[in-house]
From TrEMBL:
It comes from Glycomyces endophyticus. It comes from the Bacteria. PANTHER family: EXORIBONUCLEASE CYT-4, PUTATIVE (AFU_ORTHOLOGUE AFUA_7G01550)-RELATED, RIBONUCLEASE. Residues 6-304 form the RNB domain. This is RNB domain-containing protein. Pfam families: RNB. The lineage of its organism: Bacteria, Bacillati, Actinomycetota, Actinomycetes, Glycomycetales.
Length: 615
């Protein structure tokens, strides 16, 4: 028999400096799953709706943390009275969840609760307890970490843009932007807190929807050009694993550009950053005004009372909070912009560039490139950082595309490096377009690739050309020929960036011999993979207009891919179409290609004998 009532126990995991503790968590095993309690401080009991404290909290919107002080949303005596205190009985609003081993919520109960036995921990202490069997809270924190990992995996499998790199100190926030973690958060204790709070907020929102109860929902949308969040997450994982600093910064900038700020509203529009159908903020009522408003509504509903707010009042509160946060973001951006400009000007005057941290060096370099006037020594230090592989994509592209005066010799070197590493050229193209568009690049409307097999040459051989469109402007690269599509694209991009920068075009075509259209053996060796064989036949001109299309059916754990291959047989003039299925795209493509290969080779045989199918 348990020595404690788990429904009244909790661990408060916060930063070491936290004084406004507004949540606590507890967990017990439930078969192979979990039974979870999230306790939230009952701030609504201490702040009267419409009273002076509430009016001030509404004006402040949220607690603001500064390096030298904290500006609390609520007055200090109220913060002290509301905050959860270790081993001090506290009334709470409680979210009680039962979770299966796959991270699915099988039952959720919300309502008034009570916390009678509790402990405080920093993030680092929670991380230590999770891995130290000798720690008195080890069993609970180890299970909490397993729960957090299970919930994180379930969200990632659903396509959420969820990423924690505790070694480098980066993580994605709920809006899909990459943020830097404080030193005290670079541990598994931080992940535990995040996943418990996400679980609580999402289930509160889901409960409100089931009850048809208007609250302040948290809605988030990505820009239309952002792409699939799952693909962005996979790209982020790959960049982090490779340790490529330049690619990481480029991706970080791109994710910041395509992410939109989440907003509050009385209706549900989904949360794309978290890949959740509904979401809210309800776990920090001491620090966020929307959480306080939502808690009042939830408590009233749980007790069978009418909502203290009309739908119109909720909508008006949402608009006020959204406007206040937007104004705060703009003021903050302007403040940091002005401070950065003043700091940059000081560094330009000091002219000691080699000692600058990279972030400050980047500002100085951009400042100099935009003015078209590089101070003595900056070009030399930029070249040093280039040689040391420290120069990141944004700065490389700025100097390469726009650098003048003292940067001229360095730009020639950069041009030669791109010729050696043409795979970087497409990234420079994206930077150029972002500068012209003032925002994200769309591969649908701004970048147009033409990649085709070239049957006029001994193959296989492919041509590629890229065109950029922005406003009324269209810029097109020359066509480049290579043995595979990837190399052809890289060389076309290389030719284009040289054109944009006004530098010599160092791109190249592969040496190829024109096809001699004489009677010769056309059949591809039988040992060649069917898909590759079909591609070779296309390059030789035996099949024209070759195209593959894919579709997928079935549940995520048992997907079936279908590939349709189509092309016109040159020997007979017939349109050939085949279909293949398989558990992967490649397997389906191979199956479809095997059938198409038979038709191609049959057509070649007919062509050699002069026979044709009836029209």
């Amino acid at each position: 028999m348990a020595e404690h009532n788990p429904a009244e126990c909790g661990v408060m995991i916060d930063a070491a400096t936290t004084v406004d503790r507004d949540d606590a968590v507890w967990i017990e095993p439930l078969g192979d799953g979990f039974e979870v309690w999230i306790h939230i401080a009952r701030a609504a009991d201490h702040v009267r709706t419409g009273g002076p404290t509430d009016t001030e909290a509404r004006a402040r919107v949220h607690t603001r943390y500064r390096a030298d002080h904290t500006r609390h949303m609520l007055p200090a005596p109220v913060v002290e009275a509301v905050s959860l205190t270790p081993d001090h009985p506290c009334d709470t609003f409680t979210v009680h969840l039962r979770i299966d081993p796959a991270g699915r919520v099988v039952d959720a109960e919300l309502g008034p609760g009570r916390l009678t036995r509790s402990w405080t921990m920093t993030h680092a202490e929670a991380a230590t307890a999770a891995t130290d069997p000798a720690h008195p809270r080890h069993d609970t924190l180890a299970l909490a970490l397993r729960f957090a990992q299970t919930m994180l995996a379930a969200r990632r499998n659903a396509g959420a843009l969820a990423f924690y790199d505790l070694l480098s100190g980066f993580a994605t926030n709920e809006e899909g932007q990459i943020v830097r973690l404080d030193s005290g958060e670079r541990n598994s204790g931080y992940i535990i807190v995040q996943e418990f709070m996400i679980a609580a907020n999402s289930q509160i929102a889901a409960w409100a929807v089931r009850e048809d109860l208007p609250i302040l929902f948290r809605n988030h949308r990505l820009a239309a050009v952002a792409g699939d969040p799952a693909e962005l997450r996979d790209e982020l994982d790959a960049v982090a694993a490779a340790g490529d600093g330049a690619a990481f910064e480029m991706l970080r900038s791109r994710m910041k550009m395509v992410s939109r700020a989440a907003t509050y509203g009385p209706t549900v529009h989904g949360h794309h950053g978290l890949q959740l159908p509904v979401y809210t903020h309800a776990t920090s009522p001491i620090r966020r005004y929307p959480d306080l408003v939502t808690q009042r509504i939830l408590l009233a509903a749980a007790l069978g009372h009418p909502s203290p707010y009309t739908p119109e009042e909720i909508a008006e509160t949402a608009a006020h909070v959204n406007d206040s946060l937007d104004a705060e973001r703009r003021a903050k951006a302007e403040y940091f912009k002005q401070r950065a400009q003043a700091e940059t000007a000081r560094h330009v005057q000091a002219a000691d560039f080699a000692t600058l941290p990279y972030k400050q060096f980047s500002r100085v370099l951009q400042f100099a490139v935009e003015r078209g006037d590089a101070p003595p020594g900056l070009a030399a230090d930029t070249a040093r950082r280039l040689d040391a592989r420290e120069l990141q994509l944004r700065e490389f592209a700025s100097v390469y595309l726009y650098g003048g005066g003292e940067f001229a010799p360095l730009r020639e070197r950069m041009n030669r490096r791109l010729a050696r590493e043409p795979q970087q050229a497409q990234s420079v193209v994206n930077v150029y377009l972002q500068d012209r568009l003032g925002g994200p690049v769309s591969n649908e409307t701004n970048v147009h690739w033409t990649v085709e097999p070239e049957p006029a040459y001994e193959g296989p051989l492919f041509s590629a050309r890229v065109a950029l469109t922005y406003g009324d402007t269209r810029i097109e690269s020359p066509k480049r020929l290579q043995r595979n599509k990837k190399d052809a694209r890289n060389q076309a991009a290389l030719a284009l960036v040289a054109m944009l920068a006004g530098l010599p075009d160092l791109s190249a075509d592969v040496v190829a011999k024109p096809r001699v259209d004489v009677q010769r053996k056309l059949l591809v060796d039988a040992a060649v993979n069917p898909a590759e064989a079909v591609q070779i036949y296309a390059a030789r001109g035996a099949v024209e207009g070759l195209a593959w299309e894919f579709s997928v059916d079935g549940p995520s754990h048992e997907r079936v891919f279908t590939c349709t291959a189509e092309g016109r047989l040159r020997a007979t003039g017939e349109l050939a179409a085949t279909e293949g299925k398989g558990p992967t795209k490649q397997a389906a493509k191979t199956a479809a290609s095997a059938e198409l290969r038979v038709l191609i080779e049959a057509g070649l045989a007919l062509g050699e004998t002069g026979e044709r199918s009836p029209a």
